[in-house]
Amino acid sequence: MNPKAKDPRELQQERQQRGEDFQAEIRSSWANIPNCWRMRIKDGGGGTRPADEIVLLEEVNVLAEHKRTESDRFELSFLRPDQVKGLLLFDRCLARNFGLVFVSFNNPEKGRDDAYAFRLVRALRYMQSKERQYVTLEEFSQGAIPCAKLPRITADNSYDLKGLVKCCKSL
Fold first, then answer.
1. Domain count, the chain
2. Which domain holds residue 52?
3. Are 55 and 37 in contact (CB under 8 A)?
4. C-alpha distances in angstroms, 88 versus 23, 60, 93, 116, 125?
5. Residue 165: what pLDDT?
6. I want to staple 65 with a disulfide (CB 3.0 to 4.6 A). Which of 17, 51, 113, 127 is the partner?
7. Domain assignment of residue 150, yes or no
8. pTM of the shown model
9. pLDDT tens, 78-112?
10. How far, rounded to the nearest angstrom, does the alpha carbon of residue 11 sit from its chain's CA centroid?
């Protein structure tokens, strides 16, 4: 056995920590948006929460799920069925509601992650048209589905969400 090989439990803990770090970075990023109220959604047990947080803004309401991947694609299987249902139902309730997924693609070659936000309803339509269950990083970067690239603010290790708020209705 390779002495440098990591225990699968250790790898899972590292992945979970990177995901929690991404969630924390997005949560702290909302602080830069004026008139923003956000609340983390606590899991009711059994993995039944519809998303990670709800964010209320002057013009829009966002139900947000945060995902981080080392892959070069976002897979529908990253979301639990209750999350898919919750994001879609929230999106349909009011015209100002948006069920968004925030995804961070780990990119060690660039020394940083590429992060995007997109409406789940649009991603599902796109996946259905391609007869598959994923969207690639390249498709996000080329605008194959409406999405917002989330630029990094290096000073405080957060994301600039101002552009996302402005373009939310076009997603």
1. 1
2. 8-170
3. yes
4. 20, 15, 9, 18, 12
5. 86
6. 51
7. yes
8. 0.89
9. 999 999 999 999 999 999 999 999 999 987 666 66
10. 21
Q: Is the pLDDT of residue 2 over 60?
A: no
Go through 59-89 and write b for each residue having 16 or more CB atoms within 10 A of its CB, e for each that does not. ebbbbbbbbbbeeebbeeebbeeebbebbbe
Instruction: Compute the half-sphere exposure of residue 71: CA atoms within 13 Å on the CB side of its CA.
Output: 12
**What's the whole-number mean pLDDT along residues 112-140?**
94
CATH code of the domain in which 20 resides: 3.40.1350.10
**Class of residue 14 by CB neighbours under 10 A (exposed 0-12, middle 13-18, buried 19+):** exposed
Q: Which two tokens stand for residue 59?
A: 């013009």
Amino acid type, 101: V
